[in-house]
Design brief:
Largest sheet: none
Order of helices and strands: HHHHHH
Strand content: under 5%
Radius of gyration: 40 Å
Number of strands: 0
Distance between the termini: 22 Å
Structural class: mainly alpha
Oligomer: single chain
């Protein structure tokens, strides 16, 4: 950027020695140089903000993906727990029938064996089937993660418009920068060849650059 400004100053200095027309061209070169420097700075700023927004969007997307994975795991575990649950009606029916059969056994030792079997089955059920309170807490946790996932998804979507806005702005500013650069070339040609048409073209491009920047 400093080199371009130095080149502009040299052109303006040469223009000051080329008479009245050269003075006009020199002023045009100075204005175009300012437009070029300003548009280049604005392009850099928009690109930086665009990259920052894309980085934030990537972070939000990673968080959303992590929450999605966590929610799927919780749902899978809930389904597994549901599959292990016993139908209350069938349980009552089986328990009543088991008690009836156990009470009909006359042999005391055999009755003890049946009692031991029932106790072991009860211990197994208690170990494998979680209590209802734990299942409710687990379901509430899955619901909370789902809400966080939705919020993270909206967060990711919010960056799409921001990234696009910075991209469009940078593209427009680059057009202003190119117009200024071409205008400087035409002004230099106008100075070397004393061509008013080239000077008019450089001023027109300067106006185009100003209109875009405005």
């Amino acid at each position: 950027m400093t080199e371009k400004l130095n080149e502009q100053l040299e052109r303006v200095e040469r223009a000051s020695h080329a008479g009245k027309f050269g003075l006009y061209v020199g002023v045009t070169l100075a204005v175009l140089g300012v437009l070029l420097a300003f548009s280049a700075a604005m392009v850099g700023r928009e690109r930086t903000e665009q990259i920052a927004a894309m980085v934030d969007q990537t972070k939000a997307s990673m968080k959303h993906n992590g929450l999605s994975m966590k929610y799927r795991l919780l749902v899978a575990q809930l389904r597994q727990i549901h599959a292990q649950e016993i139908d209350p009606e069938n349980y009552k029916k089986w328990d009543a029938e088991s008690k009836k059969l156990a009470s009909s056994i006359a042999n005391a030792d055999l009755a003890k064996v049946v009692r031991i079997v029932r106790l072991e089955n009860a211990k197994t059920l208690d170990a494998e089937v979680p209590p209802e309170s734990d299942v409710i807490k687990f379901a509430a946790l899955a619901k909370a993660v789902k809400e966080q996932q939705k919020a993270a998804g909206r967060w990711v979507e919010s960056f799409e418009g921001l990234v696009e806005t910075h991209w469009i702005a940078s593209e427009q500013l680059e057009r202003a920068q190119v117009a200024s650069e071409i205008g400087i070339v035409l002004a230099s040609i106008a100075l070397l060849l004393t061509s008013r048409y080239a000077w008019y073209g450089s001023m027109f491009l300067g106006l185009v650059s100003m209109a875009i920047l405005w």
